[in-house]
Specification:
Blueprint (H helix, E strand, L loop, with lengths): L14 H4 L20 E7 L18 H7 L3 E3 L2 E2 L5 H10 L14 E2 L7 H7 L3 E5 L26 E3 L4 E2 L6 E2 L2 H14 L8 E7 L10 H6 L34 H28 L6 E7 L4 E2 L5 E3 L6 H4 E2 L1 E4 L16 E3 L3 E2 L3 H8 L23 E9 L2 E7 L3 E6 L2 E8 L15 H16 L10 E2 L1 H9 L11
Parallel strand pairs: 1-9, 1-10, 2-15, 3-16, 5-6, 5-9
Antiparallel strand pairs: 2-14, 3-13, 4-21, 7-8, 10-14, 11-12, 17-18, 18-19, 19-20
Helix pairs in contact: 2-7, 5-7
Length: 488
């Protein structure tokens, strides 16, 4: 441990324990199968809705490479992020802990402090090589502010952290990296391994596409152009928010037709998918694919008009912005006891979350994660997690949101609507029909369960959480984040 650096909080809240322990989540039981892998590869995509992918039933050809990958993996049908913004969502994924426990909410620019252990640090401590390739400005490595000792943010623990971003967003002119360059950077690191190529490593690759503005290459844009089906046009907003307007940073010249924006979003997914296909092919060609644990997910989703929110995220906790794709390929294509469906894909309907990834990834390289569930412990009809919490969220200081789901019903409530809205997501996946008045007992029970979860949390908010003031000022100046929040 670096002299003068705060001691890491290592086991206070492992993933499975964190997610509604009072509601049925259990520790590892003797005899349950463990996954053994030669390496762990985590691939995340920014702002990617599950329901815009072929493997989740979308009819347009947005994701052929990912669909093929899913056919030799396990697909989690109902998986959730911890927050609808990049910084808290990824921070939670990398620590197995809730965003508010590690000090990264409210807002989208706070970084975990040096006293919080990341999964990369846990791997590095065991001598395992760690590398990351990131493409979102908010994930760049930053210097800690005055008074904070040690590195901050999700870059902690990575021996190689590639955050080169040579492209610019079309409106805000903020740095980003397009999907093809992200794959190239990941391959470059694989090349650098040389004779050590087959030694264990943990690699994280984060793609920025399809985050807005939706500006895919012309080839993909043409592929997804369609005649206008929805005549709706929207005004261009004067802010970055998307309630009843097109957010300022999403503006595509003078275009105001919502169908065009939706088509461009799909085209951006296809652009990402092509780059992902190249990365997976490279891994296979190098002999790094078959015996690896490969996890694919997104940081959060995107509103495409639901509940009056357009082309945005971070403004509510409805399902479209926190339900994420989660596809896990276990070594050898092992289905972990899950039988393929009619489409050849192994699907798990029980609710899951990013919190489950911490124990799964650590356990794959024989590192004890602490008492936890994890996705590696699958047995047919035997998933101990019954319910999950979606992170408390504050788009503004005065507007908190909460959500909880039991896999069928989902309750969403906020500071301005404490009674909540209850949805049966099996029959109403877009959360249009509020059942709260019809079933007040269920509402009370779900809110009580959430309260029990909060009351049983261990540990205080990280004292070392920090915001890099230079980056924050740049983002505010550009309108990228508002004073109490953000839009990424």
């Amino acid at each position: 441990m670096t002299p003068g650096r705060p001691r890491k909080k290592t086991g206070a809240l492992a993933a499975g324990t964190l997610v509604l322990a009072a509601m049925g989540c259990s520790a590892r039981e003797p005899g349950l199968p463990r996954v053994q892998a030669a390496r762990v590869i985590l691939i995340t995509c920014d702002t990617l809705r599950a329901d815009r992918l072929g493997l989740y039933g979308y009819p347009r050809p947005t994701s052929p490479a990912l669909d093929a990958f899913a056919r030799e993996s396990v697909v989690f049908e109902e998986a959730y992020s911890a927050a609808p913004w990049t910084q808290p969502a990824v921070s939670s994924l990398m620590t197995g802990r809730a965003p508010e426990e590690i000090g990264v909410v409210p807002g989208n620019v706070r970084r975990i402090g040096p006293d919080v252990e990341t999964i990369a640090e846990r791997f590095a401590a065991r001598g395992i090589a760690t590398a990351a390739v990131v493409s979102n400005l908010l994930l760049k490595r930053v210097e800690p502010p005055p008074g904070v000792q040690g590195p901050i943010g999700v870059s902690q623990g990575f021996g190689h952290y590639d955050d080169r971003m040579l492209s610019k967003e079309s409106v805000r002119k903020l740095p980003e990296r397009v999907a093809s360059d992200t794959t190239a950077a990941a391959i470059e690191w694989l090349d650098s391994r040389g004779a050590r190529a087959k030694e264990p490593f943990f690699l994280w690759v984060h793609y920025q596409d399809p985050h807005g503005p939706y500006t895919p290459p012309a080839e993909q844009a043409r592929e997804f152009d369609q005649p206008v089906r929805d005549p709706t046009q929207l005004p261009l907003g004067k802010s970055m928010r998307g309630k009843d307007q097109i957010p300022l940073y999403q503006a595509l010249d003078d275009e105001r037709r919502v169908d065009v924006y939706r088509d461009r979003y799909d085209a951006e997914i296809r652009t990402f998918d092509r780059a992902l296909g190249r990365l997976l092919a490279e891994l296979e060609q190098r002999g790094l694919y078959e015996d690896a644990l490969i996890v694919f997910s997104a940081d959060h989703g995107e509103s495409l008009g639901e509940h009056g929110y357009w082309f945005c995220h971070g403004e509510n906790l409805h399902r479209e912005v926190v339900r994420v794709p989660l596809v896990v390929r276990f070594p050898g294509g092992d289905g972990r006891g899950v039988e393929p469906g009619a489409d050849g894909v192994r699907r798990v309907a029980t609710i899951a979350s990013h919190y489950d990834l911490w124990p799964t990834m650590l356990g794959a390289l024989d590192i004890a994660p602490g008492p936890s569930r994890g996705l590696a412990l699958l047995e047919p009809q035997r998933l101990p997690l019954e319910r999950a919490v979606v992170q408390d969220f504050q788009p503004l200081e005065q507007a908190r949101w909460w959500a909880v789901s039991d896999g069928r019903y989902r309750l969403v409530w906020s500071a301005d609507n404490p009674a909540g809205r209850l949805f049966d997501i099996r029959s109403d996946p877009e959360e249009r029909n509020d059942l709260a008045n019809e079933d007040p007992a269920r509402v009370r029970a779900m809110q009580a369960a959430h309260a029990r979860w909060v009351s049983t949390r261990v540990g205080a908010v990280s004292s070392g959480s920090a915001t890099a003031s230079d980056l924050t000022e740049d983002l505010q100046r550009l309108g990228y984040v508002e004073r109490a929040g953000g839009g990424d």
